[in-house]
Design brief:
Elements: H1 4-35, H2 44-57, H3 77-88, H4 93-116, H5 121-143, H6 148-167, H7 174-187, H8 192-210, H9 225-248, H10 253-262, H11 270-286, H12 295-307, H13 309-318, H14 322-343, H15 357-372, H16 386-411, H17 416-419, H18 423-438, E1 445-449, H19 454-467, E2 472-474, H20 479-482, E3 493-499, E4 508-513, E5 516-522
Parallel strand pairs: 1-2, 1-3
Antiparallel strand pairs: 3-5, 4-5
Length: about 525
């Protein structure tokens, strides 16, 4: 038998594992579309994400997601990338969730594509076995979440794997690296350093690869001009709004970010840093038992994986496996950058701030697994032992189990139409309807927001008015959250959202439930 047949068989195995990886998000999207996309009325962060996506549809969103520290994350890429799904879904929140599923599906497809172009089948198989566990860690709720801490996890993983492949010569993956890296870095400030590290690592590795003869199967043919041009176009399109906003405003968002980073703040304790890193990096390992993101088991697993990366790198160097060297090397560099990033974060150290490290933990796991897989799995020798012949079977079984776990979770996940009937969504819907009932289509509306949790409902009211093409703005004190596209108008109607009590008595009550009140302070006209 020729060597070509086993090679084709292993290529088909990689493609089959990619198909299994993509099956759960495809099933999730199909199930939600079959149930029908509901017009959910939301509040809090989901409302702000949808409001920014709505502003993107009108071509006026120049900032990234807001931060509680008074600035916005670096750029608006996520809102424009969510836009096709949002528009296809009739500008409903269900369409926004569909856009998130589509983005994660594309990201997972990118991971699968990049895995196959690394030039090391053992490494590709390892990645395609462990990545479904990351999908399990996110769950159907995370895969369909348009919230930036969830949306960047798969994008960051795609950035890391495609960066290693580009460094090894797979120029065709350069557009993926730029697109995924831009999405991750613009949507979460903490990822600017890690994404920059991947880009620099890929550039240095590419220079070194040109001066070093290949020892493994070639990752790709020499560079393609179309890929370079496409990557340049993507980079310009992604970062032009960031540059335009900074240059065009008196005090741009980049300036605000720099001012925040320049402030002195207490460093996080070392034990808190390693604990946060370990819990995030190991969360995908404990996801099948429903303990993702918390607990000592996840922390111990994540720290053990990180600690064993130098061993995997040494094995890769000894066996002259350049793709494994590359992914292990970038993983170690990113672990250091992540620890430094966590140490500089402000308290409290919420779990969602480090959720992106789950993608790095998957890289750690794949690198370690690939380092331990039998070397003959890469070749076509007929004299392989029984254990070596059993590895492909074990890989397929593991992938089937992971895909089955994800499909079971998709099947048990409530449809968005069912979720739309939740009392909290109905409550926000009633408040929005009360606001619409008194607001004229042609007049601007100013929404004033009281102290406490009333801003969460106010976000839903502002979104509901904006959906109906009302010109709506908020008080200057809240502009950092709602963005410059919604300044306070000088005339028109004025609404107040506040927590019911002695300090919330002004105006005519339009709606009041569960301690929150919507009042009309100034009538239209």
């Amino acid at each position: 038998m020729s060597d070509a047949a086993p090679t084709r068989g292993r290529d088909r195995l990689v493609l089959g594992l990619v198909a299994l990886l993509l099956l759960p998000p495809i099933a999730l999207a199909a199930r939600q579309l079959a149930a029908g996309l509901p017009d959910i009325t939301v509040g809090s962060d989901p409302a702000l994400v949808e409001l920014a996506t709505l502003d993107a549809a009108r071509g006026r969103q120049l900032l990234g997601p807001y931060s509680r520290f008074g600035f916005h994350h670096p750029g608006p890429a996520m809102f424009y990338l969510l836009l096709p799904g949002y528009l296809a879904g009739g500008r409903t929140h269900g369409g926004l969730l569909l856009g998130a599923v589509a983005l994660n599906l594309l990201g997972l497809a990118g991971v699968g594509w990049a895995s196959g172009r690394l030039g090391d089948r053992r490494l590709a198989l390892a990645l395609l076995v462990v990545v479904p566990l990351l999908v399990a860690r996110l769950g159907p709720a995370g895969i369909s979440s348009a919230w930036n801490p969830n949306l960047v996890v798969v994008a960051f993983l795609a950035t890391v794997v495609s960066g290693a492949a580009v460094g090894l010569g797979a120029t065709a993956l350069l557009p993926l690296l730029v697109a995924a890296g831009s999405l991750a870095a613009q949507s979460h400030l903490a990822l600017v350093g890690p994404v920059a590290t991947v880009v620099v690592f890929a550039a240095v590795l590419r220079l070194l690869s040109r001066a070093r003869p290949a020892d493994d199967e070639a990752a790709a043919a020499p560079g393609s001009g179309w890929a370079v041009v496409a990557a340049a176009v993507i980079a310009v399109a992604a970062w032009a709004p960031v540059v335009g906003e900074q240059v065009g405003s008196g005090r741009g968002n980049v300036t605000r970010i720099a001012a925040y980073l320049a402030k002195e703040r207490p460093a996080q304790p070392v034990e808190a840093v390693f604990g946060a890193y370990g819990r995030a990096a190991g969360s995908w390992l404990v996801a099948p038992i429903g303990a993702a993101g918390s607990g000592r088991a996840a922390a111990a697993a994540g720290l053990a994986l990180a600690a064993l990366q130098p061993v995997a790198l040494a094995l890769a160097v000894r066996r002259r496996r350049r793709p494994l060297e590359a992914l292990a090397g970038v993983g170690i560099a990113l672990a250091v950058i992540a620890l430094v990033t966590i140490r500089g974060m402000a308290s409290p150290l919420h779990e969602y701030l480090t959720r992106w490290i789950a993608g790095l933990g998957v890289v750690h796991g794949a690198v370690l697994m690939a380092a331990l897989l039998p070397r003959r799995l890469e070749h076509a020798e007929p004299e392989r032992t029984g254990a070596e012949r059993g590895w492909p079977v074990a890989v397929v079984v593991a992938a089937l189990l992971a895909a089955g776990l994800n499909l079971v979770r998709v099947a048990g996940y409530p449809s968005w139409r069912e979720q739309a009937e939740a009392p909290v969504f109905a409550r926000i819907g009633r408040a929005g309807a009360a606001a619409l009932a008194v607001v004229n289509c042609d007049e601007p509306v100013r929404v004033s927001i009281g102290e406490g949790a009333s801003w969460e409902l106010a976000a839903g009211v502002v979104l509901r008015l904006a959906r109906e093409r009302r010109t709506v703005g908020v008080d200057p004190a809240w502009s950092f959250m709602f963005g410059p596209a919604h300044p306070a108008p000088r005339n028109g109607a004025r609404l107040l959202v506040c927590e019911a009590g002695p300090g919330c008595l002004a105006g005519e009550t339009l709606w009041q439930e569960e301690g929150v009140r919507l009042a009309l302070l100034q009538k239209p006209g």
